[in-house]
Amino acid sequence: MTTHRDPPTEAVSGLALSKRRGDQKMTAEEIDLSVLTQVRNLRNPGRTFNEAWITWEVPFDSSYLIDYVVRWGGPAPVHTTECECLLQGLTPEVEYTVEVQPRRSQGAPAPVVSIKVVTHDRVPPTRPRGLHLDRMPGNRSMLSWDVSQDNVGVTGYLLRWNEGAELPINTSTFAVDLPVERMKSWQVRARDAAGNLSRVARWNSGVPPSKPTGLSASSVTGNSATLEWVASIDDIEVTGYQIYRDNRPIDNVDSTRYTAIGLDDATTYTFKVRALDADGHFADSDPLTVTTADTKAPSMPGNFRATTITSHSVGLEWASSQDNVAVTGYEIYQGAAYLETIPDIHYTISGLSSSRLYSFAVCAMDAAGNRSIMSTIQVTTPVSNAPTNLEFNRLSFMHGALQWAPPVESEGVTGYELSRDSVVFREIPELYFLFTDLEAGTTYLFEVRAIRHGRLSEPASIRG
Predict the structure, then answer these.
(1) Which residue of 48, 102, 317, 328 lies most exposed, with the fewest beta carbons within 10 A?
(2) Is 9 helix (H, G, I), strand (E, B) or coil?
(3) Is 423 helix (H, G, I), strand (E, B) or coil?
(4) Average pLDDT of the chain?
(5) What backbone phi and psi angles, to 5 degrees, belong to 120?
């Protein structure tokens, strides 16, 4: 509970009770006693670039005091019962008006007391430019440069030559008691009142860096490549390297290694590296051609189908696959067994058994070894319609007997076509044939096909 305290007598006596208006004394009722309720000794003991510490003392009259309201232009005022407040989230190099007002439960509002607070400067000056080295009489050298800029103000420079200690100076010129020939190097940087320092500016003789050598690529993937090179040298200092891709700058680095990312698959790029020094001189490496890896697989062969099916063979066809580079061939599988890689979009598999279920697959591949998703089909070979039980018996040097049985499905068979060494020589209705013109010591290939409704069956074959 807030307790009421009477103002100290010394505070009241300190008021102008004895002042006169002209010749007349002021009465107690005419005196503004509200000053007794305002905070005392408002101060800013500490601050950074984004914080400020505000302190004050309790008012002489703290009766009915609830807390203190602190305002500084922030999103919302701060309420505190302490006699201090840390303001955070301030903007650097900005002047704030901080107000503190006691909040009372009754009585007249307390007056507002304010203080100006300026956050610290953390912005450095601009780097000195236009460095010059001029000869002066008496074997002296004049160093000069363009004045740096700062958001508040440049207070001076730190100058150093021939690897000596830095010397603080106030102007953008300085005479050195050395001849130009003995000025091997010198540098300068600007400073401001907050102690911020600019980047170092170094005098350069005008000689560019040596060109980067040994540019090479490693760890090349489908979308990235790592570049490496031998470091350049400069008479003062190499400040960095600029990376070019297809004659366009893409990045700057300080080291001799860079990984280019976001590249396209199976694409050729030309890279170069540019060495830079502090005065803007440069030297380019020899160009390097890099082709990213092909990691994209061809599309799946489409419309995979069996075009011809016999009891012992199947003819397969499919639609061509597409690839970002080129399809180099198709792999054929029977079940899980690899059969062959071919460049065509059709293939015949023979040596199959009749009346059996087979599974076939085809996938496309490219030169990089990428393989598409497989296309698969299942095919059941039909019952054979070729003649059965084919036999050949050599009766003499010139004579031999060929005989056979009808096909398993013999309905509609009207005869048989005979061939010797792939040459058709006879159609007969019988189930045998006698050869009388054989040559001694010669082996023949005999084939017999059933004729059904004018069409030929698969052949039954034998050698003898």
Answers:
(1) 48
(2) helix
(3) strand
(4) 88
(5) -65, 160
**Which CATH architecture is the domain 302-380 placed in?**
Sandwich (2.60)
Query: Do 200 and 125 form a contact (C-beta atoms < 8 A)?
Result: no
CB of 262 closer than 8 Å to CB of 289: no
CA 417 – CA 425 distance, rounded (Å): 8
The number of beta carbons lying within 10 Å of the beta carbon of residue 273 is 25
pLDDT confidence of residue 206: 66
CA-CA distance, 325 to 159, in Å (whole number)? 60
Residues facing 377 on adjacent strands: 360
- Give the fold, CATH level 3, of 213-291: Immunoglobulin-like (2.60.40)
**Alpha carbon separation from 98 to 38, 48, 81, 119, 172 (Å, rounded):** 14, 15, 17, 12, 39
Could you tell me which residues come within 8 angstroms of residue 58 by beta carbon, excluding any fewer than 6 positions away? 39, 40, 65, 83
The radius of gyration computed from the CA coordinates of the chain, to the nearest angstrom, equals 51
Residues present in the chain in total: 464
Backbone angles phi, psi at 94, to 5 degrees: -125, 140
Rounded-to-integer distance, Cα 93 and Cα 151, Å: 9
Superfamily of domain 388-463: Immunoglobulins (2.60.40.10)
CA distances (Å), origin 454, targets 37, 412, 413, 457? 125, 10, 9, 10
- Report field, pTM of the whole predicted structure over 0.85: no
What is residue 398's DSSP assignment?
S
Indicate the SS3 state at residue 364: strand
> Nearest-CA neighbor of 104 among 73, 59, 47?
59
pLDDT, tens digit, 9 for 90 and up, residues 7-44: 443 333 333 333 334 444 544 444 557 788 999 999 99
Given this model, what pLDDT does residue 195 score? 86
The one-letter code for the residue type at 64 is Y
The phi, psi pair for 12, rounded to 5°, reads: -65, -40
Where in the chain are the domains? 9-118, 132-202, 213-291, 302-380, 388-463
Q: Rounded CA gap, 278 and 209, in Å?
A: 10
Nearest to 281 by CA among 249, 233, 340: 233
Helices then strands (H, E): number in the chain? 1, 38
* pLDDT tens-digit readout, 428-460: 999 999 999 999 889 999 999 999 888 888 888
CATH code at 132-202: 2.60.40.10
More confident position, 343 or 410? 343
Question: Would you say 304 and 318 are in contact if contact means Cβ atoms under 8 Å apart?
Answer: yes
Structure tokens at 167: 């010397």
- The H-or-E segment that residue 57 falls in is strand 51-57
